[in-house]
């Protein structure tokens, strides 16, 4: 897929997660105030210049006697809101960390996300590794193989904060494996939080107008689509509304918009996922026998005009976003965050566009079948040459603690510096697997009790948004997005109405390196051709045969072996 | 004696430029060895494993290598031909325009698309050719049913070539305009005295005047015979038109340059360079032999 | 009679062809202008074609506050000035001796083939970067200017333009005893204004449009030249389906197709403005005219 292939090139560096936020609100008056206790940059320079070696200090929040500095390769973030003179490595947040544990970051280089991988490769090839680096799985493997990074096992045990450990533990052992080599922990894994599966987003105002019931089964969904297509829900007297949007990749891309994943899972099919079949064998979801029935259904939906005729030539994201924004569609699959983008764009053009999430289409047990994603994202590694690998972990400790408002000093710092934006330079997300649901639970508690006193400081804005939206629903698209995503959307992310399938493997095996491009091309072509009717569904069996012959068999065995470990 | 001192000055004149080329083009060519390695950045060029011709062989071993290579050559060749012909014709058309402000305005306008990236143009092109786009609307005036152009293996290549010509012809025209401007005006004066009309002047003076430039640019454009235009295709294609538009570069991209398969990418680059180099040598020799004309 | 009619018809046809081609080429430009003056949400919905919808200049007001844009703009100007002049000098110095026949300058063929091969073969990103780094040119404007100073294509083009000059002028009897540099400056350069304008334009365009070297060679995004700065906007814009919620939020605030389009348009202006200026050199007869004076 055109965008998918670049997906993790960019995602690798871009999916920087929750840590990237800037805690701030209005009030620019105090922009230049720095805590009095923070040493000035010049003072630190002189201290390091004296070259006093700080004693090792493995306490999670223990402060070094002398400042410890590590160099790091940075992804260019958005610091347009930093006050004049502040930088991503010298701002209220980093000064807070310096004050707390006496650790600071110096950029080895900083680069736009689109060229991050190349810059990393260049650094490595030149033997010019920064002290700390955030890398993807493949680079991690290579770094371990080349013996360039430090073993963090012991340091992790000693220095990682309880919060960090608890967050990792929330993945039930699914997270550390990818960073563990021969029993040694070689990196701190970043996490991808769960709950980003597809919901069905529906224009509630259109449902009301056409007097339709909210959807549950696939039949309901199809009925609604038909009504939206033929009964002119936008009332412009033109037959210009579409049914269901779809992705040219059909399904199987987690955490993206307009994939048909939940229709496939209704038939027990999980395209593009490595799963275990009923007999416990590892199988590639796109080749599972269940696919046939699912494809038959989906191609029928296309033929009947339920699915957007032109989905194949629409650019994923951009084009679909435009259709949603223009109010030409009232049904789309997507994760809970949809209101932020693209759904709020619809609201900007039509304040009545009231998108609501539903669990649909439900299976015979009344559940929505979803799959989970790779909990691993990026990895923080420390160069072997760096004398204080624990310093990087401390940095992350303080950073994470502060993000969660668990450190009263941090809260104090953030409140005191209200109006001054900070920036966390280590762009590595570590969070609970059910982070989105935790947000919802505490938000709901505040709403039910009518008080945000117990709410985390960075959640208070959501509470405000919820209340504000209640007064005047949809009046402010940004407020609406926050309220709808966090309250309506997140409510459905870890609900009882879900049945979850955990894929067993996410990485790349040796044979994949040479054969996957061919197999994926075959897969992409076959899926889309069957859906649009260029290829009869009977050909699916030929596809499976060919897929196995061209290396699929071999790869499946490798994956099974890897998954068994 | 005079010759030798002159040669010395020539060498000296070439020195700074050659130094730049030596430092920044020739020394880095050592990196071509990556084509024969399973290159791992963390290990560097010195410690990466040697795999011989594996990387080069890879593109020929994949099941659809025939399709991918054919697409590459067909699309690239058509672009090379169209990309040569249209600017020449357009330069000649411009040259015949009398009104100089009109000429300059047109010249500046047709030069604009060169500066707009494929990412942006792709959005516009997708719109133009969509079911409710302008092209289909025009066709419907003639009673033609709407066509999904960008999903059609019949139409996709012509669209690639057409839009590529459209983007680049204005920029390509510049060289020919310069060549025409360099033609000795005495020739035209003499032709007018001989009673030659505009068409004859075009055929017997202007055209022959730009022939060396045409030959030169044709030869140099052979260097692109395996470059079918990654950015354009990458931004416009979809799985339905793989069979008519999947080229070596898009394939290699999907294999994953992003996964740092530097070996494969370098090998493909090397293959392209060798083919281009051979073609250029051949056409150099041909020009030499047939018309005793030295291209460079 | 007939021939006059023919020629009028022919003229009309020529104007029509040229006009139509220009209209086609103007379309994306006008579309971009319309987008940059339209309201964000109308653009997101694809309502804007060739005329602004809900006209606003907010993109341009925002642009005025973007310090980095202007910083990068200046870096690009600096790059074009330095790089353009360096390239022109090197190209002329190389093209002159290489335009001589083998009988006059025996080593020319060797040089030519070396130059042609640098046009075709390259060792890829990593060794290229390492050379530049070894020479301490990373993070300097010279790193953007020197490595690409000699474009083989331009040199070859220049050689051919020089060889197309009338032989008698090349030898320029009056300048007996003058050295190659004097001949180059006094005879060749004034005779080659159209070709110099062409090569100059190619060089300027090359420097102005280059974005990747800036990204790789500059360790601090503050030093990005303009197109590097622009590129990162366009690239991140198209991948939004894969972003996290925090980034989507930020995107909906920050990323802004109208603003980005305005930036792209402004970044194109200098290069569009420079062409009409150079066009006066593309006039028939200018070559001889300059010699007679």
TrEMBL record, chain A:
SUPFAM superfamilies: Periplasmic binding protein-like II
Superkingdom of origin: Bacteria
Signal peptide: 1-25
Keywords attached to this entry: Signal
KW Signal (keyword) present: yes
Alphabetized InterPro entries for the sequence: Bact_solute-bd_prot1 (IPR050490)
PANTHER family given in the database record: ARABINOSE-BINDING PROTEIN-RELATED (PTHR43649), POLYGALACTURONAN_RHAMNOGALACTURONAN-BINDING PROTEIN YTCQ (PTHR43649:SF33)
UniProt name for this protein: Extracellular solute-binding protein
Lineage: Bacteria, Bacillati, Bacillota, Bacilli, Bacillales
From TrEMBL, chain B:
Top-level taxon: Bacteria
InterPro entries: MetI-like, MetI-like_sf, UgpAE/MalFG_permease
One of the Pfam families matching this protein, by short name: BPD_transp_1
Regions that span the bilayer: 12-36, 68-94, 106-128, 134-156, 202-226, 262-287
PROSITE patterns per record: ABC_TM1
Localization terms from the record: Cell membrane
Swiss-Prot/TrEMBL keywords: Cell membrane, Membrane, Transmembrane, Transmembrane helix, Transport
Span of domain ABC transmembrane type-1: 69-283
Entry's family note: Belongs to the binding-protein-dependent transport system permease family.
Name under which the protein is recorded: ABC transporter permease subunit
The species this protein was found in: Cohnella silvisoli
TrEMBL record, chain C:
Localization per record: Cell membrane
Keyword Nucleotide-binding listed: no
Main location: membrane
Membrane topology field: Multi-pass membrane protein
Protein species of origin: Cohnella silvisoli
Domain ABC transmembrane type-1: 69-278
Domain of life per record: Bacteria
Protein's UniProt keywords contain Transmembrane: yes
Signal peptide residue numbers: none
InterPro entries given in the database record: MetI-like, MetI-like_sf
Identification of the protein by name: Carbohydrate ABC transporter permease
PANTHER family named in the record: ABC TRANSPORTER PERMEASE PROTEIN MG189-RELATED-RELATED, POLYGALACTURONAN_RHAMNOGALACTURONAN TRANSPORT SYSTEM PERMEASE PROTEIN YTCP
Keywords from the UniProt entry: Cell membrane, Membrane, Transmembrane, Transmembrane helix, Transport
Transmembrane feature ranges: 12-37, 44-63, 75-98, 110-129, 141-162, 183-208, 261-278
Gene3D superfamilies assigned: MetI-like (1.10.3720.10)
């Amino acid at each position: 897929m055109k965008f998918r292939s670049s997906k993790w090139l960019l995602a690798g560096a871009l999916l920087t997660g929750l840590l990237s936020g800037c805690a701030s609100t209005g009030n620019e008056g105090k922009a230049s105030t720095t805590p009095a206790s923070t040493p000035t940059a010049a003072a630190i320079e002189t201290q390091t210049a004296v070259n006093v070696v700080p004693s090792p200090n493995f306490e999670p929040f223990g402060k070094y006697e002398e400042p410890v500095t590590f160099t790091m390769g940075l992804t260019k973030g958005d610091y347009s809101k930093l006050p004049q003179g502040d930088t991503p490595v010298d701002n209220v947040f980093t000064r807070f960390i310096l004050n707390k544990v006496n650790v600071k970051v110096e950029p080895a280089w900083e680069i736009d996300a689109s060229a991050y991988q190349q810059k990393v490769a260049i650094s490595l090839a030149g033997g010019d590794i920064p002290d700390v680096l955030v890398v993807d799985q493949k680079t991690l493997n290579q770094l371990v193989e080349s013996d360039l990074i430090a073993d963090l096992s012991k340091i992790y045990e000693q220095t990682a904060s309880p919060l960090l450990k608890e967050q990792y533990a929330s993945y039930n052992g699914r997270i550390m494996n990818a960073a563990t080599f021969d029993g040694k922990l070689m990196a701190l894994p970043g996490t991808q939080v769960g709950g980003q599966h597809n919901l069905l987003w529906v224009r509630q105002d259109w449902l009301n107008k056409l007097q339709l019931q909210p959807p549950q089964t696939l039949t309901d969904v199809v009925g609604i689509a038909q009504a939206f297509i033929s009964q002119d829900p936008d009332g412009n007297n033109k037959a210009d509304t579409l049914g269901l949007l779809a992705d040219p990749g059909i399904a199987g891309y987690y955490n993206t918009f307009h994939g048909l994943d939940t229709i496939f899972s209704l038939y027990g099919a999980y395209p593009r996922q490595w799963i275990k079949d009923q007999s416990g064998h590892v199988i590639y979801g796109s080749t599972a026998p269940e696919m046939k029935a699912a494809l038959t259904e989906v191609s029928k939906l296309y033929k009947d005009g339920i699915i957007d005729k032109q989905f194949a030539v629409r650019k994923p994201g951009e084009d679909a976003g435009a259709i949603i924004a223009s109010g030409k569609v009232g049904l789309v699959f997507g994760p809970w965050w949809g209101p932020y983008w693209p759904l709020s764009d619809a609201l900007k053009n039509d304040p009545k566009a009231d998108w609501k999430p539903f669990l649909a289409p439900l299976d015979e047990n009344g559940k929505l079948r979803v799959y989970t994603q790779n909990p691993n994202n990026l990895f923080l590694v420390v160069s072997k040459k760096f004398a204080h690998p624990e310093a990087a972990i401390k940095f992350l400790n303080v950073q994470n603690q502060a993000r969660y408002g668990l450190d009263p000093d941090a809260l104090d710092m953030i409140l005191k510096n209200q109006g001054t934006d900070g920036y966390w330079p280590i762009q590595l997300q570590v969070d609970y697997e059910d982070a989105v649901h935790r947000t919802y639970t505490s938000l709901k508690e505040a709403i039910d009790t009518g008080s945000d006193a117990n709410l985390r400081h960075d959640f208070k804005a959501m509470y405000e948004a919820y209340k504000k939206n209640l007064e005047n629903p949809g009046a402010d698209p940004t407020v609406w997005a926050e309220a709808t995503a966090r309250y309506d959307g997140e409510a459905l992310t870890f609900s009882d109405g879900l049945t979850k399938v955990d894929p067993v493997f996410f990485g790349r095996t040796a044979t994949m390196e040479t054969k996957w491009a061919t197999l994926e091309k075959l897969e992409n072509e076959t899926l889309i051709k069957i859906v649009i009717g260029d290829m009869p569904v009977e050909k699916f069996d030929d596809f499976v045969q060919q897929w196995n012959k061209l290396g699929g068999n071999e790869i499946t065995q490798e994956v099974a072996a890897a998954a068994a470990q | 004696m005079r010759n030798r001192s002159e040669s010395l000055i020539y060498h000296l004149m070439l020195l700074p430029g050659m130094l730049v080329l030596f430092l920044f083009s020739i020394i880095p060519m050592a990196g071509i060895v990556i084509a024969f390695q399973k290159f791992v950045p963390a290990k560097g060029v010195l410690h990466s494993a040697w795999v011989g011709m594996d990387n080069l062989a890879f593109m020929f071993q994949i099941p659809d290598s025939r399709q991918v290579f054919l697409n590459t050559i067909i699309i690239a060749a058509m672009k090379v031909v169209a990309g040569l012909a249209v600017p020449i014709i357009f330069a000649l058309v411009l040259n015949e325009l009398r009104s100089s402000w009109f000429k300059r305005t047109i010249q500046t306008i047709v030069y604009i698309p060169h500066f707009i990236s494929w990412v942006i143009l792709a959005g516009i092109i997708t719109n133009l050719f969509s079911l409710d786009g302008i092209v289909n609307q025009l066709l419907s005036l003639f009673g033609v049913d709407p066509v999904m152009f960008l999903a059609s293996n019949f139409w996709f290549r012509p669209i690639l070539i057409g839009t590529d010509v459209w983007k680049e012809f204005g920029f390509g025209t510049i060289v020919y305009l310069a060549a025409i401007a360099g033609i000795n005006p005495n020739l035209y004066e003499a032709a007018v005295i001989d009673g030659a009309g505009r068409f004859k002047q075009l055929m017997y003076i202007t055209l022959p005047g730009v022939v060396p430039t045409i030959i030169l640019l044709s030869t140099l454009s052979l260097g692109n015979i395996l470059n079918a235009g990654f950015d354009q295709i990458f931004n416009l294609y979809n799985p339905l038109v793989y069979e008519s538009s999947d080229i070596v570069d898009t394939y290699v991209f999907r294999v994953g340059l992003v996964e740092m398969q530097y070996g494969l990418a370098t090998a493909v680059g090397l293959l392209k360079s060798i083919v281009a180099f051979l073609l250029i040598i051949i056409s150099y020799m041909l020009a030499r032999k047939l018309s005793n004309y030295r291209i460079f | 009679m007939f021939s006059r009619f023919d020629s009028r018809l022919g003229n009309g046809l020529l104007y029509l062809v040229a006009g139509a081609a220009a209209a086609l080429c103007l379309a994306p430009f006008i579309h971009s202008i319309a987008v940059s003056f339209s309201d964000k949400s109308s653009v997101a919905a694809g309502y804007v074609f060739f005329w602004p919808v809900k006209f606003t200049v907010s993109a341009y007001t925002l642009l005025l506050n973007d310090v980095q844009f202007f910083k990068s703009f200046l870096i690009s100007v600096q790059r074009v000035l330095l790089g353009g002049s360096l390239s022109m000098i090197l190209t002329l110095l190389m093209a002159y001796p290489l335009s001589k026949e083998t009988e006059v300058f025996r080593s020319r063929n060797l040089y030519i083939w070396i130059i042609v091969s640098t046009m075709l073969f390259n060792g890829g990103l990593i060794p290229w970067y390492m050379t530049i780094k070894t020479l301490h040119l990373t993070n300097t404007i010279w790193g953007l200017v020197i490595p690409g100073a000699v474009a083989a294509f331009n040199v070859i083009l220049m050689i051919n333009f020089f060889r197309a000059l009338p032989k008698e002028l090349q030898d320029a009897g009056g300048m007996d005893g003058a050295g190659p540099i004097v001949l180059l400056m006094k005879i060749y350069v004034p005779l080659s204004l159209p070709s110099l304008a062409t090569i100059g334009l190619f060089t300027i365009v090359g420097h102005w449009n280059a974005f990747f070297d800036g990204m790789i060679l500059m360790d601090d995004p503050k030093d990005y030249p303009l197109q590097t700065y622009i590129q990162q906007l366009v690239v991140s814009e198209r991948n939004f389906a894969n972003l996290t919620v925090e980034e989507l939020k930020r995107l909906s605030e920050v990323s802004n197709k109208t603003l980005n389009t305005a930036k792209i348009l402004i970044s194109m202006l200098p290069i569009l403005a420079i062409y009409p200026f150079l066009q006066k050199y593309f006039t028939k007869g200018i070559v001889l005219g300059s010699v007679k004076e």
